[in-house]
Structures are given as C-alpha cells and as structure tokens.
Amino acid sequence: MATAGTLSKESSDAVSGSSARSRALSDGFILGLITALLLIWLLVIVAAPLATLLVKSVQNNKGEFVGLANYATYFATPTLVASLWNSFWIATLSTAIVVPLAFVYAYCLKRTCMRAKTIFLSVALLPIFAPSLLSAVSLIYIFGNQGFLKSWLMGAEIYGPLGIVIAQVFYCFPHAVLILTTALALADQRLYEAANALGTSRIRTFLTITLPGAKYGLVSATFVIFTLVITDFGIAKVIGGQFNVLATDAYKQVVGQQNFEMGAVVGFVLLVPALAAFAIDRVIQRRQVSLLSSRAVPLEPKPNFVGDAIATVYCVFIGGLIVGVIGVAVWASFITYWPYNLTLSLRNYNFAEFEAAGWAPYWNSIAMSSLVAVLGTVIIFVGAYIVEKARGLPTARNLIQFLAMVPMAVPGLVIGLAYVFFINAPWNPLGFLYGTIAVLAINSIAHFYTVAHITAATALKQIDPEFESVGASLKVPVHTTFLRVTVPICTPTLLDIAVYLFVNAMTTVSAVIFLYGAHTKLAAISIVHMDEAGMSAAAAAMATLVLLTALAVKLAHILLDRLVFGRLQAWRGR
Amino acid sequence: MSPLPSCRSKPSDTTSGRYARPVRDASAHRVLFATSRVSMATPSVALHQAVEASSDSVLAAAPSPPVHVRIVNVSKRFGAFQALKAVDLEIFRGEFVCFLGPSGCGKTTLLRAIAGLDPQTDGLIFMGERDVSSLPPADRDFGIVFQSYALFPNLTVAANVGYGLVNRRLGRKTINERVAELLATVGLADQAAKYPVQLSGGQQQRVALARALATSPSLLLLDEPLSALDARVRVRLRDELKSLQRRLGLTTIMVTHDQEEAMGLADRIVVMNRGEIEQVGSPSEIYSRPRTAFVADFIGTMNFFDAFVAGSHQLQIGSLVLETREAISAANGQRVRAGFRPEELKIAEPGSGSALVGRVRDIGFHGGFCRIGLELDGEPLVQLAADVPAQRLRGMTLAVGHPVAFSIPPEHVHVFG
After folding, report:
1. pLDDT digits (tens, 9 = 90+) for B326-375
2. Which residue(s) pair with B389 in the sheet?
3. Cβ contacts from A onto B, under 8 A
4. What strands lie across the sheet with B143-145, from one edge to the other?
5. Cα atoms in the Cβ-side hemisphere of radius 13 Å centred on B58
6. How far, in Å, CA of A487 to CA of A68, rounded?
7. What is the pLDDT of residues A419-435, one digit of tens each?
8. φ and ψ at B116, to 5 degrees?
9. Inter-helix orientation angle A117-125/A78-111, to 10°
10. Are B163 and A195 an interchain contact pair (Cβ–Cβ within 8 Å)?
11. Across the interface, do A208 and B168 touch by the CB < 8 Å criterion?
12. Rounded to an integer, what distance in angstroms lies between the CA atom of residue A102 and that of residue A315?
C-alpha cells in the first residue's frame, strides 16, 4: 500500500517534471532561435556593411590590398585636407553658437516660471521634423541672390561657410535643447537652499551649483552637436556653394567620380569624431548617475517677475527665429514665381513640372518610412526583449547588445557609404536588393537602431523581472506572457519608437542618398535634386510636405496617446 | 496629603492646541508637580520620579534665559492645505529644542519658516528683538543642516566647509584656518581634500554640520539630520551633536519624527500634529504627563480605553471602577478616553487583593522586558498591555491563559477629554 502510494507519487512527479522540461525546452528553443536570427540580422545589417567599408578603404580599385595607401593619398591631396579643416572649424563654430543658445533656452524652460513652456519646447523641437536642408533652403530665400533681406549681409555671401553655420545652428538647436533640458531638469533644491542660507550671490550659486550640475549635459551636447554638424550632408550640399566639407567630399568621390576607395577613406575620417563623441558620452553617462542622491529634493523654480519676463523675451526671440526660418520655406513654397510673381498658388507642388519622378518620391518616402516604422519597431522591440529578459545564450545576447549600440556612433553618411559598398559587392547574394525600397528601409532601420533600442530596453527594464517567472510557474509559454503582458504594458513605448523611426526615415538624406534606385527616389533626395537644378521653390514645397507629414504623424501620436491609450492604460492609475 | 491639583488644564486648553504662552504654562505645571508628587510616589516609581523632579526643579530654579526665537501666530498655507495653524512658540537662548511629530504635521514647515526658506503666510518671527519675518535667509542668523546633507558634489570637503566664508569675502588665510578648525571639531581634519562622494554618510553629515557652523551662527537648524544614517552611526552622531551643542552653547532646533531621538537630545520637545502644537515640555514631562491622547500615543506606548465618568476621581469601565489621582473635569456619565503606560500596570499574585482580575492573552519578549497582553475578566473588549522587566518576570509564573490579578495606580491614569 505504502509502496504503491510512493510509486504513484513518484511517477506523477516524473510526468509533471518531464512536461515542464519539454515546455522549458520549447520555450528555450524558440528564444534561442529568435536570438540566433536576430544576431544574424544585426551582423548583416550593421557589422557586414561597416566591415566592407573598412576593407574598401585599404584596397585599390582592383580589389587588391594596399594597406594605408588610400589614406596616404587622401592626406596628400590638398583639396581633401582643406575640406577636413573646413569641416572642423565649421563644426567648432556652429557648436560654440548652438550650445550656449540652447543652454539659455533650456534654462528658461526648466529653471524659470515663465508661461507657455510646452509651446516653447514644441517650437524649439520643430526643426527635428524637417530635413536638415530645409533651413538652408529657407536661408537662400532670405539672404540668397534674390533674398529679401540680402542687404542685411552687407555684401557677404550666404552661399558658403556663413550659410552653413547659420543653417546648422537651426538644424542642431533642438538636439542641444533636448540634451540640456534633461541635464537641467534634475537638481537638488537643498543645494540651492544651503547656498541661499549661506548668503551666496546669484552668480556664485550659478557657477558653483547650476553649471557643475549641468556639466555632463553640456559636454554631451557639445560632442553630439559637433558630430551632427561634421557629418551632415544636406546643408552643405544646398547652401555650401564652392565651399567643400567632408560630407560633400564623400558624395563627390562616390557619386561624382566613382572613386569608391577614396569615398571609403572619407567615411572613416568622418567616423573618428563620431566615435570620440560616442565614447565620451558613454563615460559621462556612467559618471552622471552618482551625482544626484536618492534623498535629493527636486528643485522647483520659484516665480520671479523680472527673471521670468527676461526668459519669456528670450524664448519668444529664439522661438520666433525658428518659426520664421521654417515659415519662410513654407511660405516660399506657395509663391508662384519668386521674386517676380508673389501671388500664392500650389504651382510648386505640381512636382511633375520640375522633375520626371513627380510626386512619386513623396509616396516612396511614405512607403519606406511606414515600412521602417512597422518592421523596425517589431524587430527592435523583440531584440531589446531578448537582451533584457531572455536567460540563455549570454554571449549571443551581449553581441546583440553591442551591435545595437554601434549605429549610434556611425553617422548616416558613413552607414550609407558602407551600404553602397556592401550591397554592390560582387560576392554579396543580397545584391539584387540594390535600389529597392527594401534596402532603403533596412538601411534606415540600421541607421536609427540604437535610440529605438535604448528606448525599448528602458521600458522593459521597468517591468518586474519576475513576470516571466510567474508566467513559467503558471506553465504559460513565454510567447503568451510576451503578447499578453509585456507588449500591452509597453504599447506607449512601441508607439514612441514607431513615430521616432517614421519621422527620422522621412527626413533623412545622408544615409539614403547613395542607395536609391531609378524608381525609389525619396522625397528628401528629390529636394536635393530639385535644389541642385535651381528649382528652389519646388524644393521648398517638397520640404514643406515632408515637414507637414512628420508633424501630422507626431500630432496623431500625441492625440492617440492621450485619447486612446489614456483609457487602455487605466491600470497605470493616472 | 492634599489631593493633587489637576496637572492638566481645562479641556479647552488641551484640545485647541493654541497656547498663548505654552512655555510658561508648562513651567508652572512643572513646579506644582515637582513639589507635590514625590511625597506621594509609591516605592517602585520613586526613582523615576526623583530623577524627573530633580531635573524639573533645576530647570524651574534657574532664571528663565532670554528668548532667542519667538514665533507669533505663524500660519502657512500651500494652496488649500493648511500646513501651520497659528503657531506660537518661544525658544530660549542655548536650549536644544526638537520639533517632533508624524510626517505632514508641519514640523519641517515651521523650521523652514524660521529659516526663511519657505516664508510663512501669516504671523511674525523674531530672532532676539529683531523682526525677521520678511527677511531673506541670508539676512537671518542661522546655520542649517539638511537630511540629504546637500553637500556640493563638485567641491572638496574643505571648499564645502569654507563656502559661506568665501561669501563673506574673508581672506584666504583666515578661511583656511577656520576650515581646519571646524574640520578638527567634527573630527574630519584628514579628509579636507576629498569629495563628498568619497565619504560615508556619517562623515558627509559632519561636513554639512561644519559648513553650517562655519559662519558662527547663533542658531542651528537641523532638518532630520540623522534619519538618513544607519542605526549605529546615528546614535554616535547624536551624542556628538549633543556635546558639541553644549560646548558651543548654541541654540538648536531639530526636526525629527523619531521620538527616541527627541527624548535623548532635547531640552524641550515641541510635539506637533496637523499643523498645530500639541504640547511643549521636557522629555520626561511629555512622557509622564501627556496633555492629549495624540501625544500619549505618539510618545511611548499607552493603553487606551473608553470609560464613563463616575465621579471627580472615578472612571467606570463596564462593571469596574477605576480610581484616578487627577480630577476629572468632564461631567458624570460622560464618555471619555483614558489611558496609562504599560509599565505602570502592576501584576500581582492571584488573591493578593488587587482590584482587577484577568487572563494572560499573550507574552512578547522584548529583551529587557516582556510585554504581556491582558484580557479583563468580564470586559473582553478591553485589552491591555503590561511591561514587566525580564528580571521580575523570572519570579512569576505567567503563561498564556493563566489568570492574573493586577492594579493600575491611580496617579498614572490619564484622562483625555
């Protein structure tokens, strides 16, 4: 009797044990398969192109290894070295202007009690929704040969360094504001009170508390902006005139002269500042953490009539300039024939009159961006899930994490170059993709992978790590927990990622300029072409179209987030 | 032996929480109590009361020191929330005062009003004879230490301590000397070149203290300075703080929610609740003669029960009658809340003639003493706790379910309106 009881108990144990094991096996198998697929995917879309670029830069045009000969040639060519110097000082000057301007703007947003902060922040972020060259197009209308404020330049030429720097300031401003508002958002009120109690002057308080507190943000902003400027292609292309910079060199070498080896070298030169900025940013972020103790009391700005008024005036001025510059491009796009026929019309939107492709580039952009948003969000989120939540295959997961971070350090132009060489390589079985929407989309996913990955990983980190264990204890397969719990919790994040990917895919020029095919020209590229052909009005019209589309998507996102998800996310207890 | 005059004022006085002069009020009680109490004490409490009486009489005998901080009718509103309700208080020169109360009681708000960091909505604050009500913090004379230390993370320990001295445009040599002296005072002379992150919590708090003392303020404000520290460091720093305060003769106000800390440090405790002062007094006074049920409950443990007034010195609980030493001001038949401290309940051997009989419900071991849960026979709803020193318990045969006889000394029964 007793023996029988023990036996039956043991056997039932064995049964449940084996079924649990088989589920663990199938869960493990599925996760392992996904991990492997993701790793292959990232190796193909990130690692392989960059490796091809590296190889290309040490080969001659017959594909033979030549060591650093290409680099030697590069540094022996005076015009190329001159562009290196040009890029360097343009980037330095632009950074020196943008960072202080953005710091004061961010300070007004975070440390004063001025009104309408949301509006001022939105205005500052406007340029993000347009291709970088929109501000250049606009500047040509204002200060160009037929510009309505040309006289203000007192004979100076907008085509060249002056125009590039001004346009870069507009293009980079929102990025700097974003970093600096984050840096200034957190501060310990007690530090200010301690200083106040000790009778500290405002200036000393600013120098000893505010500035050191935002130090890392300032350093980070400086490097990010420097990299943005040095690697931006669109602005220099549109308003640079005869003034050469690294980014336009790369374009000329590859597209103009078919000199792929030299293009690869320029790509690698461009990679240096970006890699430096990336490395410094990493170090800084690690140090930033320890500064604010958990007991710190968040600073709340106090109303100050004079200070708030000055802040408002400053923000109205800067915000006004941003709206003005963007507004000019929009306005110009509706003018029938600048400067001879100022009546408003939609003539410039009849793109077929200006280039053969007509409206097709716009629809291509929409299709490509949608593909990037949908496909990119799914892949990136699953990837982040594997990195954050899966248990097995630690080496593979670490490698995925590393590959996910790489694109952050690689400028769009370099990724674009890398893709050209990769996809055109005779040994590549994926060569058939050249010139398709698919390769443009894949390239864009790779280009914007990191920020989206970090966003997803951050959201996943906030989810209780025991959900998976609970699911397993209830004998629910991993994919069920993923779809029933993880995905619904992360829906707002998924939407954030999708919109981020869409807007960036819509506005990017640098990565895709080398990759489009005869039937897959994108809106942003068609802006470059129409501008090149002297049809600025049509270029402005297309830029306006891109801006409005990106803004509409963002607006829809905000509305959706407030109306729909506000209800679905009731459990958040808002 | 004349009956003890009520040590509790009239009910209106105890419940309103507004005292024109709570300080004088309390000292008047102290004198009365100190003289009339000792003679009546039972042997078991004699020691406790003797200590109390001596400290009370010392305080009572000394001439009242000048008032350092006077708070007159101070109120503070945050939107619709009334954080302070017309508070009056006097703090004497050289004394150590603790503002004690649960979170949200207004203690920190009062401290920050005194500092001028969050100015009061209404009322006046004097420092000495000076009206500082609308002065900015820098023009009031105080040093402040925060719970989070609030050390400037980017400055060295020495630069932190010298921060306020630089503001006064003192010479570098003077500053260096003063900083060295202060760091020696707080025992951190060898840490001058370090940054705050490199120090332990206790060390950081010492630096914060040195920084607050650097400009030689006459008033030291401490906003929960010890609560971020672990228990052992807290006790050590508490002792150091007290001896430093004594040595410098510094008027000190400390905000705390830890009653043990307040009892150990303060010359006087200001017990606050819901933006009002419940009671002001020495630690022993507040413990042994709580004015309100809130004070009794917040400081130490209290056996509370509901009873009906059965006479000027009698309470009725069900069929039982309990004597009180204090005169009950409420009318006969009125329902009141009463209580006594667990250590005052006297457990006796069964049959010794003690008034009350009951049963042991549970026994909890607390190291030096045991807390015994009692059930009153015939009154199962009245559940009492008795603290018995472990040493004394050894001679007794108590077990859960056993019947016990006990008494509650009338002088320890408190009646709260």
Report:
1. 888 888 888 998 899 999 888 876 555 557 888 889 988 888 888 999 88
2. B369
3. 72
4. B143-145, B219-223, B251-256, B96-100, B268-273, B276-281
5. 7
6. 49
7. 988 998 888 888 888 88
8. 85, 10
9. 170
10. yes
11. no
12. 10
